[in-house]
Amino acid sequence: MKICLLPGDGIGPEIMAEAVRVLRALDLDCTMEEALLGGGAVDATGDPYPEATQRLAQAADAVLLGAVGGPQWDALPRALRPERGLLAIRQQLGLFANLRPAILYPELANASTLKSEVVAGLDILIVRELTGDIYFGQPRGIETRDVDGRQERFGFNTMHYSESEIRRILRVAFEAARKRSGRLCSVDKMNVLETTQLWRDVAIETAADYPDVVLSHMLVDNAAMQLVRNPKQFDVIVTGNMFGDILSDEAAMLTGSIGMLPSASLDANNKGMYEPCHGSAPDIAGQGIANPLATILSAAMMLRYTFARHDAAQRIENAVKKVLGQGYRTADIHEPGMRQVGTREMGDAVLAAL
Amino acid sequence: MKICLLPGDGIGPEIMAEAVRVLRALDLDCTMEEALLGGGAVDATGDPYPEATQRLAQAADAVLLGAVGGPQWDALPRALRPERGLLAIRQQLGLFANLRPAILYPELANASTLKSEVVAGLDILIVRELTGDIYFGQPRGIETRDVDGRQERFGFNTMHYSESEIRRILRVAFEAARKRSGRLCSVDKMNVLETTQLWRDVAIETAADYPDVVLSHMLVDNAAMQLVRNPKQFDVIVTGNMFGDILSDEAAMLTGSIGMLPSASLDANNKGMYEPCHGSAPDIAGQGIANPLATILSAAMMLRYTFARHDAAQRIENAVKKVLGQGYRTADIHEPGMRQVGTREMGDAVLAAL
Ligand SMILES: CC(C)[C@H](C(=O)O)[C@@H](O)C(=O)O
Ligand SMILES: CC(C)[C@H](C(=O)O)[C@@H](O)C(=O)O
């Protein structure tokens, strides 16, 4: 079990430290090596995804990532921005299947801005395609052209999917739906975009191999509405990279506790990168108050998906449930009557609960 | 005042009838002529935007639209689908500025799935660009190519904006923000899409002409989250066609009463098309139970934006507030203790309140 650790920027190193402590406590016979990604990597090497990191990530079975980015790198040219590192590692490792659960822990039901009857027991899985779509399509750029003697700038990007790219992410989603409720909702904009017309066609074709899964289709604008109106109508949602970026963040926020949500990005052989859904939170970095649970739960996802160590994954997940039950809360999920703790103490509590 | 009426499909004709009664009651010295758009137009003429409708719409000062679409037209080839009519009229008339208010009426605060303290008093204006972006960009399509001896389909679309397209919608948004709170949030995905990097650059340049407006920027995934987390942080939001489609529907649903929300789509000279935010609701069409208030409020927007008849617009808006205060509710916004009425009775109530 070779794990590559990428703490990244902002609160990344703090939350990563706790996940590493949890992994070590499980006595798993794994090796962990650390490397640079994002803003810190730019500062140290001039590259958000340096070669040393590339070698380590390619050689590892799994990558555990903290978070990347921060305002100090916003003014850099596009190619040097921290998120370029993220996009590059996704593409280089072929991590096309992004799994983003949106789960509302009963203990945190109050954290949501939605009425409790609307979100109580919420448990959605968003399956987002991660290496295609308008994120990577060519041609793209900004060009200046002469229009009637005036210079004018034009921006353009290309949305693009092949049927095999669509089919492989649909298969991941059908498999996931089969293991859950047997319901899959595919989200597209087929009434406007030909790319997503093909998406819908391939979804319908792929459904023939999964007679036990009920496939439905929804337009992306309607999906954005239905997530607010009645999120519990969904079980597994599958969609493209761009729509998935928007809908998975919307769904995560329905829980009100985005500091709790892990994610997995998998290749075709269950190699994966695991990271919290939240960002690098530069405003609270270095204060020891960030919530490490999403990173700890990302480590659990890693044990489950890449290493098939369901026992160890379950132990971590149970420990997290237990500390919530015991009333431990970091600032982001704190409520009156609960016990507010910092990053390290939350890690201690999880270790104790293991 | 020449008004072109396009009742459209589903509940369109029913809700349009009530808006027309309200307009007539105002004694405005206007002419109203009706034409076909959408599914009904396809059935009658084979074209979702027939030539007779084009002539009428081009000659009119304003268009009032009910809604288009329905399941019976879903299997038609793309070019014949009802929504093609909608896209064609937007483009032909140059209706680039789509204004979508998301307002929560105090009387309907319970209708929202969000906690009342999160949405009470909500009043956001989304300004969506409507004639550019990936909706209309070329090249686009689905192609079959030979890949290593296999036939494979590829889907592609082009996101595209010129700086002048961006500037003119930004100006509309800055003007709107100036008349409201003086705060404008521009939404893009500049960390991934060059097109929206240009969007952000032009937004910053345009801001120089509006020193009294505070411009902020937000990434689209974050905007989808922030609308759920704390929607009242926003006043005016401006964004492109695709992101605007998603975010405006999400914002509308925050109110829980989408049957109340009008919209305007304007050209450069305040010619406009006005329509409710909701769809054609084929499931309840013909039953006389649809909510006509969004269409009636769309007529008010028409009087305000195209005809500068603020007095008459205000009279309609006041009448709608009054009937809500009197407890009149159509089924979609009904609550115990209120007076449930049908489409026609709601129209009667508004007429009485005028
Ligand atoms: C940082 C950014 C490039 C990234 C994305 O858009 O994919 C992020 O928003 C995410 O969802 O992981
Ligand atoms: C029907 C469809 C083409 C249309 C759009 O995507 O613009 C609709 O969703 C809207 O928002 O008016």
Automatic annotation (TrEMBL), chains A, B:
GO biological process assignments: L-leucine biosynthetic process
Pathway: Amino-acid biosynthesis; L-leucine biosynthesis; L-leucine from 3-methyl-2-oxobutanoate: step 3/4
Main location: cytoplasm
Residues the entry annotates as binding Mg(2+): D221, D245, D249
Subcellular location: Cytoplasm
Cofactor: Mg(2+); Mn(2+)
PROSITE patterns (UniProt xref): IDH_IMDH
Primary enzyme class: oxidoreductase
Top-rank taxon, per record: Bacteria
Reaction(s) catalysed (UniProt annotation): (2R,3S)-3-isopropylmalate + NAD(+) = 4-methyl-2-oxopentanoate + CO2 + NADH
EC number: 1.1.1.85
Keywords tagged on the record: Amino-acid biosynthesis, Branched-chain amino acid biosynthesis, Cytoplasm, Leucine biosynthesis, Magnesium, Manganese, Metal-binding, NAD, Oxidoreductase
Tagged with keyword Cytoplasm: yes
Cofactor remark: Binds 1 Mg(2+) or Mn(2+) ion per subunit.
GO function term, MF aspect, one: 3-isopropylmalate dehydrogenase activity
Annotated substrate binding sites: R90, R100, R128, D221
Site, Important for catalysis: residue positions: Y135, K189
Entry function: Catalyzes the oxidation of 3-carboxy-2-hydroxy-4-methylpentanoate (3-isopropylmalate) to 3-carboxy-4-methyl-2-oxopentanoate. The product decarboxylates to 4-methyl-2 oxopentanoate.
HAMAP family for this protein: LeuB_type1
Subunit annotation: Homodimer.
Protein name: 3-isopropylmalate dehydrogenase
Species of origin: Accumulibacter regalis
Source taxonomy: Bacteria, Pseudomonadati, Pseudomonadota, Betaproteobacteria, Candidatus Accumulibacter
